[in-house]
Every structure is written in structure tokens, then in C-alpha cells.
């Protein structure tokens, strides 16, 4: 009998102890989150309100809590209605460039309390079948958010697909467009590396980069090779400029996003008229990964998947030089149009 009572007491103490530890951990996590999330002004397409308004506390709590439940399909219709949650069309889109650092940019912007990201690439505007499903289908793919938050999606194929600028224009002619670029030859090699990995996984043979990038008959750069064409940024941008004024684009330096992300993110915050909320606290260098990773609070942090930051194959230096010379005049034009200059060779 006495033994039974002692066991019961031990059990109770264990439950109480676990509850106490759980509460402490919860409080610590909350303090970490609230620490960095200062009150901010409401964000919408007319983003010039000078007076910052407080973001309600529930926004902070629900951004990672309820929205997570919503993604998993666990939140009830009542919860959605009660908290005034909506699925909004994106007010900003990362339209490219493939392998420029589009995922890192989206995930880093999502650190901002007023930003909600569409996790998947939706491919609404570049895929005819998806586009035919209509704008409500697209909206249905968007995450739930509070009305004052902005939704951002990224589909890098948008940048290079002919039909996309007109289709986006028809949806929202004042949308904000983000383009993240890297030094064009490095980007082309990164593009090649991704395709190569896919082929290797399927046990398929694939040519060396040099063979694809250089036309063996003429010894000139092979402009039919998609990885080369994608890196001619100015050609693609010119198509977009038929629909949108240059002020509606913001160019992100993808090379700097790798080595020193915060200043690039601050420029984007400014472009989106968001108060500056992403701080050095949210970004820490992970020596094992060799990249910056994301810190939401003292409990929750994450690095990008291993498919981001692959080791590139060695490329013949003469081919690198040939490509750099080839891209040079296009780069100059790109600087001229965008007003953003890079130290590309
Ligand atoms: P590499 O794999 O060539 O290194 P995208 O998301 O558009 O496909 O771009 C992938 C690139 O994002 C990677 O190219 C990587 O260099 C870059 N990148 C930028 N910041 C990163 C980060 N914090 N973690 C991982 N990769 C990052």
C-alpha cells in the first residue's frame, strides 16, 4: 500500500516537473520572439502611411503558431473567421533568377513579421495548365495571413517565360517585382550543377559543362544552351519592361546575399515599404553549411536544404573567361537599365 502511494506521488511529481519545464521553455521561446518583433505599421499596397501602427500581439503569436496549423489543415473555419485570416494574392513576387538565391531570399524575407511566404513554387503564370485554372485557384494556393501582412511567392521560371509579364500585369499592374541575380557565369555553372545532379540520380549520362556552354563547331559561346541564355539578364528584363516601369523592380545581389545577407534584406524591406525588422540576430553563419542560416527565436532556427549550396564542378578557366567576355556587354546594359552596378568581370 505504502509502496503504491509512493509510486503515485513520484508520478505526480514527474508530471508537475514536466509541466514546469515546458512552461519555462515556452516563455523563453516567446521572449525570444517578442524581443525582435517590435510594433510595426500595417502593410498594404498603399504603403506610404507615415504613422506606424502597432501590430497586434496575436499577429506575433499566430504568425508561427496558427498559420502553421493552417498549413497542416488543422485550423477550423471558426479560427480562420475569428482571426480575420485571408488568402491574399501576392503583393510582391520573386520572379527569378533561377539559382540566384531565390529560396534563400524568400525564406529570409519570411523572417519579417509582416511577410507571409507561399512555401511552394506555384508556377501559375508560366504553366498554361495552371494559368487556365484561373486566379481563384492561384489565390487558393496562397497561405493564410492577416490583412495587413503581405504575401510573397517565388517562381524563378517567371523571369524567362515569354507570357508571364503580361499575365502578371493583368493580375496587378502595380505589383512589386524582385529579381535576385548572381555573377552570370557562376549562375550558369550552378544551373548546370543542379541539372547534372538530377541526371546522375536517374543514372543518365550528361555532357561536361564546357561541351554544353561552348559550340564545338564555332568555338563560340553556345547561346542555345538554356543555362547560358538565362544568364543574359538584360534580354529577359527588356521583355518585362514592356509592361512594368523599372521602378517596380528591385534587384537583389545574390552573391552578397550569400556572404553578407543583412544589407541586401534591408534594401528589400525599404523597397517593399516595410519597417526594418530583420536584424543580425535573425541570421547566423553556420560554418558546417558554409552559409548563413535563419534564427526566428532562441528555440527555432533553420538552414536551407542541402540542395542549396552544392559544390560546383571545376570548369576550364578558358571557358570561364570566354563566358565572362560574352556576358560583359549584356551586364553593362543591365547595370545601365537597373541603376545597380556589380563587380562582375
Ligand atoms: P549553389 O547551389 O550554386 O551554391 P535558388 O534558391 O535560386 O535555386 O538558388 C540557390 C543558390 O542560393 C545556391 O547556389 C546558394 O549559393 C545560394 N544561397 C544564397 N544564400 C544561401 C543560404 N543562406 N543557404 C544556402 N544557399 C544559399
Automatic annotation (TrEMBL):
Designated name of the protein: Sulfotransferase
Transmembrane intervals: 12-29
The protein's enzyme class: transferase
Reaction(s) the record says it catalyses: alpha-D-glucosaminyl-[heparan sulfate](n) + 3'-phosphoadenylyl sulfate = 3-sulfo-alpha-D-glucosaminyl-[heparan sulfate](n) + adenosine 3',5'-bisphosphate + H(+)
Family designation: Belongs to the sulfotransferase 1 family.
Domain Sulfotransferase: 90-334
Residues that, per the record, bind 3'-phosphoadenylyl sulfate: 99-103, 182, 190, 292, 308-312
Amino acid at each position: 500500500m505504502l509502496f503504491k502511494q509512493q509510486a503515485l506521488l513520484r508520478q505526480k511529481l514527474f508530471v508537475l516537473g514536466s509541466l514546469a519545464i515546458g512552461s519555462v521553455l515556452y516563455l523563453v521561446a516567446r521572449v525570444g520572439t517578442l524581443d525582435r518583433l517590435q510594433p510595426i505599421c500595417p502593410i498594404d499596397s498603399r504603403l506610404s502611411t507615415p504613422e506606424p501602427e502597432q501590430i497586434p500581439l496575436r499577429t506575433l503569436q499566430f504568425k508561427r503558431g496558427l498559420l502553421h496549423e493552417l498549413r497542416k489543415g488543422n485550423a477550423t473555419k471558426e479560427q480562420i473567421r475569428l482571426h480575420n485570416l485571408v488568402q491574399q494574392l501576392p503583393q510582391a513576387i520573386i520572379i527569378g533568377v533561377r539559382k540566384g538565391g531565390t529560396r534563400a531570399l524568400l525564406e529570409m524575407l519570411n523572417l519579417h513579421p509582416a511577410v507571409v511566404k507561399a512555401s511552394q513554387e506555384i508556377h501559375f503564370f508560366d504553366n498554361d495548365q495552371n494559368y487556365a485554372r484561373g486566379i481563384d485557384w492561384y489565390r487558393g494556393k496562397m497561405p493564410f495571413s492577416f490583412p495587413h501582412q503581405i504575401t510573397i511567392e517565388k517562381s524563378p521560371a517567371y523571369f524567362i517565360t515569354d507570357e508571364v509579364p503580361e499575365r502578371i500585369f493583368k493580375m496587378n499592374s502595380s505589383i512589386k517585382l524582385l529579381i535576385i541575380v548572381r555573377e552570370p557565369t557562376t549562375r550558369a555553372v550552378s544551373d548546370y550543377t543542379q541539372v547534372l545532379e538530377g541526371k546522375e540520380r536517374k543514372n543518365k549520362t550528361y555532357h561536361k559543362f564546357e561541351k554544353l556552354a561552348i559550340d564545338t563547331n564555332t568555338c563560340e559561346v553556345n547561346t542555345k544552351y538554356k543555362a547560358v541564355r538565362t544568364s543574359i539578364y538584360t534580354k529577359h528584363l527588356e521583355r518585362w519592361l514592356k509592361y512594368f516601369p523599372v521602378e517596380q523592380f528591385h534587384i537583389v545581389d545574390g552573391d552578397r546575399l550569400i556572404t553578407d545577407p543583412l544589407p541586401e534584406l534591408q534594401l528589400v524591406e525599404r523597397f517593399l515599404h516595410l519597417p526594418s525588422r530583420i536584424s543580425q540576430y535573425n541570421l547566423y553563419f553556420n560554418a558546417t553549411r558554409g552559409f548563413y542560416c535563419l534564427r526566428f527565436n532562441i528555440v527555432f532556427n533553420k538552414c536551407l536544404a542541402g540542395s542549396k549550396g552544392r559544390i560546383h564542378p571545376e570548369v576550364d578557366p578558358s571557358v570561364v573567361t570566354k563566358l565572362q567576355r560574352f556576358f560583359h556587354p549584356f551586364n553593362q546594359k543591365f547595370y545601365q537599365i537597373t541603376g545597380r552596378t556589380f563587380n562582375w568581370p
